[in-house]
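Hi all, posting the design record for the shared folder.

TITLE: backbone redesign
STEP: 1 of 1
STRUCTURE INPUT:
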């Protein structure tokens, strides 16, 4: 039920179905932490649910609070704005605690928080999947396109989203691999510089000859860009 609701909510947000959004948000409030523990069993379940929830709530809240988002982005992401499952969560909680398995926000993916909370350990994924970075949308120009995820077909959706983002944001120019700072912010999640190059090679973004090139990280464009859904 939670998984279906998360997918339905994001689709309703995409289609701007106001009454359906309100209905599902109210339904979410009836679920408990135990419901989540009973229903979100596998990492597949958790990735689908938390990515859909993050993207849905972000679009809803950011659309209603554009001034707050532009005035202080740091505060916006750490503010406890999501109230459901008996918890008060921030967007940072979902991204770094649950989808990145308690990684430190500013540790470039190399260090975990020393004392994760009990609910965090129960609800977080067991194994980090770097592809979540290519489906999680924080409302900026440099963010990836939003995909409403479902358990059936998740692997295909993650692969498609990853290929699309890499093709758009990475290029090889003047003996440099040029890519935006998202890849630097989460460098450890990709396995460091060597792991990042292996990933780019796997997706056909670079060739073997380019593996000796150095990275050039360009600015991550934080200008607001909401309602950026995949068109299909």
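Okay, here is what came back for every position:
SEQUENCE:
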């Amino acid at each position: 039920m939670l998984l279906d609701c998360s997918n339905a909510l994001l689709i309703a947000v995409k289609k701007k179905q106001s009454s359906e959004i309100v209905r599902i948000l109210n339904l979410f409030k009836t679920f408990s932490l135990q419901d989540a523990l009973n229903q979100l069993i596998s990492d597949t379940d958790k990735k689908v649910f938390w990515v859909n929830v993050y993207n849905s709530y972000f679009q809803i809240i950011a659309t209603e609070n554009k001034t707050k988002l532009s005035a202080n982005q740091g505060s916006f992401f750490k503010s406890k704005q999501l109230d459901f499952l008996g918890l008060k969560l921030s967007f940072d909680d979902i991204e770094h605690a649950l989808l990145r398995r308690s990684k430190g926000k500013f540790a470039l993916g190399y260090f975990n928080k020393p004392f994760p909370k009990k609910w965090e350990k129960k609800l977080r994924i067991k194994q980090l999947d770097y592809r979540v970075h290519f489906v999680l949308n924080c409302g900026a120009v440099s963010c990836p396109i939003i995909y409403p995820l479902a358990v059936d077909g998740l692997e295909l959706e993650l692969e498609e989203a990853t290929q699309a983002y890499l093709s758009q944001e990475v290029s090889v120019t003047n003996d440099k691999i040029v890519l935006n700072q998202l890849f630097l912010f989460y460098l450890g999640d990709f396995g460091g510089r060597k792991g990042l190059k292996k990933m780019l090679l796997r997706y056909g973004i670079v060739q073997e000859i380019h593996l000796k090139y150095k990275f050039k990280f360009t600015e991550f464009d934080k200008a607001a860009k909401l309602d950026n859904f995949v068109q299909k």
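COMMENT: The radius of gyration is 18 Å.
Let me know if anyone wants the other runs.
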